[in-house]
Write a structure and sequence with these properties.
Elements: H1 9-16, E1 29-34, H2 38-49, E2 54-60, H3 63-73, E3 77-81, H4 89-96, E4 104-109, H5 116-123, E5 127-130, H6 136-146
Helix pairs in contact: 3-4, 4-5
Amino acid sequence: MRPKTGLSPIQEAVLHHMPRPAERHPRPVAVLTVDDQAVFRKVARDVIDATPGFETVGEAGSGEEALALVASKAPELVLMDIRMPEMDGVETARRICRSDPAPVIVLVSAEDDDVLAERLESAGAVAFVRKQELCPSRLRALWAAHGAAAGAA
């Protein structure tokens, strides 16, 4: 049996994936989370806040709100839910990609999507992550793979 730490299972998982000091980014990567479910926005905020080198700069519950926050907060990375009412994540991502500079957009969903590769490319997103797989190491890996390529790192 593991000793009790007083931390939730999510907090324990986050701490388990913390980087060594040499892996830290010199200035925080500004992250915007877009999801119509407050529960996921909180989980994403916890993961982002527990990942050295990343900071939450905003949270949006809709596509329209996301467009406004991208304009006002200029995030470098956007975690975008695919399925949202009114304007879905794919359409929101398309519109965000028209901004200058455009942030790196990662689509997220609790479900697998068989036609996602086609939708991902047409939306201007760089990757897809299942919500259940979002953790500090995945966040860092996404940024390492796509942040520098976008000129944002």
